[in-house]
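In response to reviewer comment 3 from the previous cycle, which asked for concrete evidence that the modeling workflow produces usable outputs, we include below a single protein chain processed end to end. The sequence was submitted unchanged, and the resulting structure tokens are shown without manual editing.
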Amino acid sequence: MTAKAPLLAVLAALLAVPALAKDPPRVPLPQRKPGTEAPPAEQPKAAQQSPTALAPQGDWRVGPVNALDGKFAYCVAENRFTSGHGLIIARTTPGELNIAVAIPGAQLPVDQRWDVKVQVDETVREKVAVAMQPDLLVVPQGKDEELFGLLQRGRQMAVLSATDRVAFQLKGTGKALADLKTCAEKAEPAPTRKTAKEKPQSPGKTPFPDALGEILAQAGLREVEPVSFTDVPEEKRPADYAWRVGRVFGGVRERTVDDAATLAALTNDYVDTLKAKCPGKASATLSAAESLQGVEIRTGSVDCGAKDESVHVALTFYLTGSRLFTTFFHEGPAADAATSDKARDNITTVIRRLAGAPPQPRP
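The workflow returned the following structure tokens.
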């Protein structure tokens, strides 16, 4: 969990959009704030064809992003705009390009796809966009040096769908994208950041490491309440970092394991320990392990039928090739099991994307 934090907390979501299915279902792209704007059919024709280009709020930020194992993944150039929208341009070492738009207030169905047009001045590319998180739309471009050059030299870029459109001024992209290309070609990982234990946090700053904050953000857990263990001895802390979502207590713990350890054995031991602590009847379910590039993932849950109130614990486990074993848990009353399970499933989706897996079909 040492990756540099991109401005818009996209981490590997920008890279982990592999070739999309040839015939995925397409639906109209929702408006940014449903109910606050007239539908396109009622808008003036000029407004549909020529959205006003948003102005950047500051300088472009350019830098590398690491994968889960700490190795270089890709580089990003990013900026915020006057409306609160964000524009992120990502480039890999081979030159693959992804464009992402952060849409404030959006509630996009994750993994849903839409037909869109990416227009830089008069040049248009017809693409398929995918919602990598509720407020983040990613448009894979593949290797497209012509488009990359247009983004450097152009006046504005727009993303257009059948029902929504947004445009950005490309002020400052000449230098920013030149730096982005250099960054991607160097392929140097972002520097390791010190953890909260090693470096005190500034007042008001989240106590989570950058990469953990990014994972939580991508999982839709931006508004969690951090839990402090300042007065708890380290050996008695239930997690390395923890948070609350309503009545649900969440946390993460990671540790290095030896080469002989398997994900099956590690997760079985963890679940057995939880069941042994249950004062009533305990039951557990565990999925089969899923092997992806550089990481194995497994999910599950434990239910404890306590006398006062039954407890449900939702779990995400993963083991990296560098032997780092990580457990995310969300524990709460059985009545809030849906909240715990949703947090688990969203975090699992993020981890899968970090490992480069394709989006999973939604039930």
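Residues 1-48, 193-205, 358-363 have pLDDT under 50 and may be disordered. We consider this sufficient to address the reviewer's concern, and the full set will be provided in the supplementary archive.
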